[in-house]
């Protein structure tokens, strides 16, 4: 499921001090995709795309471990294209899917174990 208007941010941190050096935000389209223009080479910084806010209040909690994705934002790495792709990220639903109970039973788990 994709939500229009969910907010994402690129955060780049200094490799030595871990201080925030650069941020820029964007919003998802109807396909859950976003395009964010970074106007400068981020060379030796660590850059992550981070989930900020879902546009759906019923699916608003960032999924820990899937709430950010590392991206390399330099042209000094042998990559020809200026386009970068981040791994998928996601928010957790407030309500489990109807099929969850059946899947848990197949793996012999109970809902109390979660």
From TrEMBL:
Keyword Disulfide bond: yes
Keyword Disulfide bond: yes
Keyword list, A-Z: Disulfide bond
Family listed: Belongs to the Ole e I family.
Protein's UniProt name: Allergen BRSn20
